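idk why but the lab printer keeps eating my pages so im just putting this in chat instead. protein + MTE:
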Amino acid sequence: MWLKFKRDWEEPESAVTPEALFKQRRNIIKGFGVAGAASLLPATGQAASWFGGDDEEPAAIVRRALNKTDIPPLHNDALTPEAKAISHNNFYEFGTAKDDPVKNSRQFNPNPWSFTIDGLVEKPLTLDLDDVMAKMALEQRIYRLRCVEAWSMVIPWVGFSLSDLLKQVKPLSSARYVAFETLYDPEQMPGQKSRFVGGGINYPYVEGLRLDEAMNPLSFMAVGMYGKTLPAQNGAPLRLVLPWKYGFKSIKSIVRIRFTDVEPPTTWNILSPHEYGFYANVNPKVDHPRWSQASERRIDDAGLLGRKRIDTEMFNGYGEQVAHLYKNMDLTRYF
Ligand code: MTE
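predcted complex ->
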């Protein structure tokens, strides 16, 4: 399975627009600035153990990852300005307005952090994020993020392949799905305390994938973005990134991953099953019952939110990597 796919996001630099490259470089350089990286972390001392466990500065560990795989984006996309990607968020645990998460997550402390991988596995594990940072090969991947609300961004994530993490627990042959769960901590997450603030969701936020989707090389666990550790509002310290699916599948601040033999319940599907399916693959031909999915607003340099309206692509442009997962499936039914 691994060797079958060409890593198509690894395009030569010559294929990338000068603007995208320039911005990527500028962001990487910015990300290495000790002050820049430290400003997003609880404290420098804690940050060092958060990002690697050894004596190396977190920014240096990220730099090592970026040097190894300085990967330009797929499709000649220009990066979304960092300031927008970290201030226009969906993270209902901190409120439902786009600017709520950045405001209401200031006190959120993701350090120390541990999470469990269990269920139908040979070797259940509880992992400290330090252990994970020490074990996993970090890399940067520039991916599109398409929200079901018809806006999109292009974000340089830092993290590691989800399948590399999942292989550590040796899934049993009976495992068919992987379930994910966000932290439940109403003291730190005001949306979990009040149904009004949290949009009526029954927390914790949960998500799920079929096993083959989880093992697809595109499935990514992010621990950073723009060359820095993840800000709280973007899902610190550890979140999923699934570029061919609507953004709500990319669950944030993960504390549990569980292998199961039945399709796990997912938050938005529970809330409104006729609007949000389990699969949630980006599909311009299957509209949301209340709006079209044929196009999207790309959040860019222009104006407050960005002006450019572009056509939405099937699987968000990642069809070559993932279309085979859904062969012979009726995607209007399994939306
Ligand atoms: N994860 C949790 N736990 N809670 C949420 O409300 N929102 C989802 C997803 N992950 C959400 C979540 C939605 S709808 C989107 S579009 C993306 O996060 C947004 O990610 P971003 O804020 O980093 O752009």
